[in-house]
Amino acid sequence: MPLYDLYPPMVNQIKTIKTILEEVRNEKELSESDGLILLSQTDETIINAIRQTADQLRQQQVGNTVTYIINRNINFTNICEQHCNFCAFRRDAGEDGAFWLKIEQIIQKAEDAVKRGATEICMQGGLNPEAKIQGRSLPYYQRLVVSLKQAFPNLHLHAFSPQEIQFIAREDKISYAEVIMTLKTAGLGSMPGTAAEVLDDTVRRIICPEKINTQTWLDIVSLAHSLGLNTTSTMLCGQIETPQQQIQHLSQIRNLQKTAIKKNYPAKITEFILLPFVGKDAPLALRNRVKREQPSLKDTLLLTAVSRIFLGKWIPNHQPSWVKLGLNGATEALRWGCNDIGGTLMEEHITTMAGAMGGTCMEVETLQQAIASIDRPYEQRSTLYEKVTR
User: Fold this and answer.
1) pLDDT in the model for residue 346
2) Of 108, 172, 241, 353, which sits most exposed with the smallest number of CB within 10 A?
3) CA distance 39 to 20
4) Which candidate, 365, 282, 357, places its Cα nearest to that of 321?
5) With contact defined as beta carbons under 8 Å apart, do 304 and 51 qualify?
6) The pLDDT value given to residue 87
7) pTM flag (> 0.85)
8) SS3 of residue 342 by DSSP
9) Under DSSP, is residue 136 helix (H, G, I), strand (E, B) or coil?
């Protein structure tokens, strides 16, 4: 059925939406204003047309195969100097529940992951001012990387957000470039694009006032690309941000990728991941403001579809969060523009401590069954979206 026939032709706004969707199907880049129109829809018929468009673009850009990765998530410490208003994970040193893993413990976790088929370790932690060797932060993080790579040279280490890079540089009074290049030389394989939250300083001043600002996040990610370190990209959605701020966030991510490609940087953004806010056990101030314990699947799915349409050919890999949405919600997101279902994780603390109900570990067979349930083929991938052969 032609897209236009889905809508009553007398409604001018729907005619506009029809035109928008037809243009993006014909590879026209979605503007911020048109993206906001799509994100503001409430009519189920229109939303389904947006979903169909996102799903069609997904098929055109990356095909029907759904990928997954066998990985382990390691949070090496939850001791953190910052007090983000969405975070239930952080602790002060000496506080009940605070931890700081020894390198030997991290190696043991990595060894267990390798035995279970992992190709990646994803490692992030709180900003612990005591994480130093002889009074300097960078040697500590360097030792973490070197120790893991010496023990498991074929394991891809995906670690250290832009916030952590800034923290290390600040503590040691050195440049971001020195931090990135030292860790890359030590064996760091790629960097998670977390700590982005929402790339709008009005929002950041409320939900994470101590974190780096928008421009610093963008600068560090772009620098990583120029120095040959691939990153991911994320958005913490469904808290206090507006649809306008969501679109602005997507626009800045898209521009970042355009810069990496047009300047022929040796690295770029490999994927985009929506991270819906989980409020159940989040700090009280933000929880009272949002008034929702678990993410809205409906809102997240619409944003998932609009993200696929907006980012277009620039960032073709999109992943939902089964930890935050549950496996059923993440599987449904595969029909709204996502082409990857994420990783096994093996353990997850940050979102779980906020009250998420998605779980902390997925078996490979469980992910495969979820993908097969929507009649799509599946394939294991590497961190950089290369096929894994065994």
Assistant:
1) 85
2) 108
3) 12
4) 357
5) no
6) 78
7) yes
8) strand
9) strand
